[in-house]
């Protein structure tokens, strides 16, 4: 089996965690007979530094021609400052890439790993059994609507079409069929017109697919995620709500540094795989970032890009075993460095 991937290390801790994920990917590929080819391309702030734009044409072409893309993270305070003077933002590159690759379904799992109860801010009896998959719509809504910057007034539009809701709803139903079959859809239908459209389409898709769906308003969902997280399985929601709730779910399960994601398009088209965290400028360059979110993203890449289920499970099993054996980076209350964490996972492989 061949696997040709593009690596976008990006900014801040991005290169640190993609380096770790590649070490693991190379080790598993060797043992599973996968012929791995990978090449780095400039992206985000690093690409702005190199050539003035966050998503260079060559990077986009390589991503579209690959089997899958492994991304670290983009952004940082220096780029935020430069943007005030009219420079492009690294985050525009990420949004552009998601749009160009048509990555409408973003899967963001957060599971409490055995032994990590103490890393959660919640009491053990509340967090026990938490295993949530957030399915976030990724190419519509507020992040892609018309924008007007301003110092007196500003505008961000939140457009959604029925077609955009339908395709991500079908992805969520598919995901729920492969899990416990419990689907929750989160919106703000008591206020937003787009949420009323969202609810109508999700109800139609669920009825067609013979699946029950429970609707929860996003403010209440934020509460339930910390009061009773273990009652949720698959949670379908729109772009902004999914961005926020997935960071919250990751912290409930121990740390944002643990959470991977798969951003998927139509069958046959390449996906993008990245930890859900950002570039973490506060710890960048210190070698202490938790690489597990990136490592688990590499497992998702193997699963969704080439159907290498055994290899994906090997990585997931090795992460679980390393955590059970006591691996703790600083975000989990320990002292392990990025390199030590990577070695601990390699050892379990
Ligand atoms: N997909 C992407 O590329 C994303 C990029 N960003 C960008 O990242 C920059 C920083 O954003 P923040 O809001 O600070 O979010 P962040 O996720 O980078 O950091 C939030 C907190 O979590 C910690 N953290 C994050 N990842 C960690 C890891 N792997 N190990 C240990 N601790 C970790 C950080 O140290 C920080 O305290 C911004 O420029 C933002 O736009 C933010 C989110 C996603
Ligand atoms: C950096 C943004 C474009 C999005 C974000 O925070 C995310 O996708 O998690
Ligand atoms: Mg985010």
Any descriptors?
binds magnesium ion; single chain; globular; two-stranded antiparallel ribbon; 12 strands; binds 2-OXO-4-methylpentanoic acid; ten-stranded mixed beta sheet; 45% helix; 349 residues; 13 helices; binds 1,4-dihydronicotinamide adenine dinucleotide; alpha/beta
Walkthrough of the structure:
α1 (14-32) crosses α11 (292-306) and α9 runs parallel beside α10. The chain has 349 residues and is an alpha/beta fold. The chain is globular and about 50 Å long. β1, α1 (14-32) and β2 (35-40) form a beta-alpha-beta unit. It is built from 13 helices and 12 strands. The strands form 2 sheets. A 10-stranded mixed beta sheet has the order 2-1-3-12-11-4-5-10-8-9, sandwiched between helices. The chain has a two-stranded antiparallel ribbon with strand order 6-7. The relative contact order is 0.17. The protein has helices at 14-32, 45-51, 57-65, 77-84, 90-100, 124-127, 162-177, 193-209, 218-227, 239-252, 292-306, 309-324, 338-348; strands at residues 2-10, 35-40, 68-73, 105-111, 131-137, 147-148, 155-156, 183-187, 213-217, 234-237, 262-264, 271-273. It starts with a strand and ends with a helix. Residues 13, 17, 73-76, 91, 94, 256-257, 274, 277-283, 289-290, 293, 331 line the site of 1,4-dihydronicotinamide adenine dinucleotide (NAI). Mg(2+) binds at residues 219, 243, 247. It catalyses: (2R,3S)-3-isopropylmalate + NAD(+) = 4-methyl-2-oxopentanoate + CO2 + NADH. It comes from Parvularcula maris.
């Amino acid at each position: 089996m061949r696997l040709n991937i593009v690596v976008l290390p990006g900014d801040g801790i991005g290169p640190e965690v993609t380096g770790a994920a590649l070490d693991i990917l190379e080790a598993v590929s060797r043992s599973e007979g996968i012929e791995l080819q990978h090449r780095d391309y400039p992206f985000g702030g690093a690409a702005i530094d190199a050539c003035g734009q966050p998503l260079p044409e060559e990077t986009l072409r390589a991503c579209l021609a690959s089997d899958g893309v492994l991304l670290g993270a983009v952004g940082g305070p220096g780029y935020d400052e430069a943007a005030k003077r009219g420079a492009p933002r690294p985050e525009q590159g990420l949004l552009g890439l998601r749009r160009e690759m048509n990555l409408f379904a973003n899967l963001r799992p957060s599971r409490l790993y055995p032994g990590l109860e103490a890393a959660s801010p919640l009491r053990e009896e509340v967090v026990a059994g938490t295993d949530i998959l957030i399915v976030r719509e990724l190419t519509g809504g507020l992040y892609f609507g018309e924008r007007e910057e301003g110092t007196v007034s500003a505008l961000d539009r939140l457009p959604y079409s029925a077609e955009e809701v339908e395709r991500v709803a079908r992805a969520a139903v598919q995901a729920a069929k492969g899990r416990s079959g419990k689907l929750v859809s989160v919106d703000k239908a008591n206020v937003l017109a787009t949420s009323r459209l969202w609810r109508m389409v999700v109800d139609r898709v669920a009825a067609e697919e013979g699946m029950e769906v429970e609707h929860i308003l996003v403010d209440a969902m934020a509460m339930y995620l910390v009061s009773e997280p273990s009652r949720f399985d698959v949670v379908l929601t729109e772009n902004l709500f999914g961005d926020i709730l997935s960071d919250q779910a990751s912290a409930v399960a121990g740390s944002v540094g643990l959470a991977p994601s798969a951003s998927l398009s139509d069958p046959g088209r390449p996906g993008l795989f990245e930890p859900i965290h950002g570039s973490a400028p506060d710890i960048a360059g210190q070698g202490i970032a938790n690489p597990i979110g990136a490592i688990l993203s590499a497992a998702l890449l193997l699963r969704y890009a080439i159907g290498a289920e055994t290899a994906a499970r090997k990585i997931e099993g090795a992460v679980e075993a390393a955590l059970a054996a006591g691996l703790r980076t600083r975000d989990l209350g320990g002292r392990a460095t990025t390199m030590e964490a990577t070695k601990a996972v390699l050892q379990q492989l």
